[in-house]
Amino acid sequence: MRIRLLGPIEVESADGPLDVGPRQRRAVLAALAVDAGTPVSIDTLTERVWGPAAPEAPRSALYAHVARLRRALAQADDGSGRTIGLGRHGDGYVLDVERQQVDLHRLNRLIDTGRAATRINDEKRVAALREAMDLWRGDPLATLSSDWANRVRRSVASQLISLAGAWGAEELRLGSPEAVAERLARILGSYPLAEPLVSLQMRALCAMGRTPEALQYYVDTRAQVVEQFGAEPGPELRNLHVAILRGELDEPYPGNVGPVTTPIRHVPRQLPADIARFSGRHDDLAPVMNWLKPASTTDSAPVVSIYGTAGVGKSTLAIHAAHKLTSRYPDGQLYIALRGTSVDAEPLTPVDALARLLRTLGVSMSCDQEQVDEAAALFRSVVAGRRLLLVLDNAVDAAQVRPLLPSGAGCGTLVTSRQPLAGLSDVRQLRVGPLTIPDAIALLSHWVGAERVAAEPEAATAIAEWCECLPLALRIVGARLVARPGWPLAELRDRLADERRRLDNLEFDGVGLRASMAGSYDRLSGSPDRSERAIAEAFKLLGTSPMTELSRSTAARVLARSEAHTERILERLVDAQLLETSTPGSYRMGELLRLYARERFAGPETEMTGEPSDKEETSGSRLA
């Protein structure tokens, strides 16, 4: 059994984590655990838990927390049958637990062990330091904000920084810079001005061949020291910086004993899992594979943009291609979801995206939102000389993507978006359309089974057609049929044939075609640009037309606009993947998009019920 204070406050028994209640009850536990085995008075507990913000009857509140905490701790078992006691002692309480079962006290014992061990007993010293580091899970007493918690946090932080310095020095001496770089990157995110740790991190990065990142650590640290204290960093850090610039850092750490093998550079593997049910797309996959070849030293890094309408499978194609390309980019694959058309989250800003990418590569960034150029330059410096594949999924536009592009000749970038990224220079564009009928049926077979599809081939074909061969719609239909093994395919075919219920039947387990289509529409309707909001209104109006094929003149009558103005609107809808055009002057709205447009035109009631509102009927008559 363990009580954990070096991070979120937790109790872990032999049976797993124990729920000890809300934040204030955890504060009571922490206030007792720091003095485990020693009585703590009620007045002291009150000050530790609430400080000056104590409730009107603090003793009653404390009694209630202690009673519930006692019942919860009675369930904790260390495997020997012994439980944690929480007893009354005079005018206070005592937590009856071995002090070494509290990570804070265990930390102190391990630090003492590491200090006492002699150089002759290297294994004991290193083992103690490693175990102590493993106890550190985050900010001590995380979630507590009382003055007492802040004092404890500052005191323990000083110990932890000293511990990290001793541990890092030993790991570097033993030739493990990759372990140091990975862990110190996280620690320095919370303690960026801990100069001894910055020094160790710079040495670790140099030992791994990542000298530009090491130099950037010095630049960032110096800027913060000058800003906060009006002084230069200490002489150790300054001298190390000069030594790196001169190429004089011959070994990872002074006092290196014996030969040190060159460590393997950390290789990020961030791609989501490849889909097992990948069907068709041979004509789309081939050019992506051909275009994404690492460039020669004289060429720019290749960039491929995959775009298309909602639910057409852009991300699936990109991830599948990226998995096939891993051998060409042996230094790793980076993946980031840019949330360009997400309906429940704002798109990532370029600075936020760069910060995430840099953290993956072991670099902590402290740039403001306005410093996108500085952050982009740092990213390009870090990836210089590497062969990395970057997958940027669901981009808003070229402005979001441009700062994220690596300049290294060995890197490649694969971007997905709803609309073509014309604002990017030297980019290969690939528009992805729906599957063919045979490929759509094959995808359905992957989900529901070939035998089930073979038993009703006509129903399977009809389902593929009602889904407009969109992979997302077919995946939803397949999941619905798997969850309903007794249904014939004909049942779902008939439900999809009813346009009032079609979109309702393309929803399952929180995934739906409506939400996917909403990403394109909401970006227009919620835009601060009045012209884009007008385009969203035009989309809804066009959905009321009974015709899927529209000429400029027909669309102009529906929108009550001139043909010239109407054409500009139609072309903008094509760019947003809310309309298609096959020949000049001719436009088509897919049936699923038309149903969605009609729902938006009719209002939220129709979206929930599928029944037309009075507004829709009246407007439809007027437009007719």
Describe this structure in words.
- Helix content is 52%, strand content 9%.
- It is an alpha/beta fold.
- The chain has five domains: 1-157, Orthogonal Bundle (Arc Repressor Mutant, subunit A), CATH 1.10.10; 175-250, Tetratricopeptide repeat domain (Serine Threonine Protein Phosphatase 5, Tetratricopeptide repeat); 282-432, Rossmann fold (3-Layer(aba) Sandwich), CATH 3.40.50.300; 437-509, no CATH class; 514-601, Winged helix-like DNA-binding domain superfamily/Winged helix DNA-binding domain (Arc Repressor Mutant, subunit A, Orthogonal Bundle), CATH 1.10.10.10.
- The strands form five sheets. The protein has a five-stranded parallel β-sheet, with helices on both faces. A three-stranded antiparallel β-sheet has the order 1-2-3, with no helix packed on it.
- The longest helix is centred in the first third of the chain and has 27 residues, at 147-173.
- It is globular and about 85 Å long.
- Residues 250-265 and 605-624 have low confidence and may be disordered.
- Belongs to the AfsR/DnrI/RedD regulatory family.
- Pfam families: BTAD (PF03704), NB-ARC (PF00931), Trans_reg_C (PF00486).
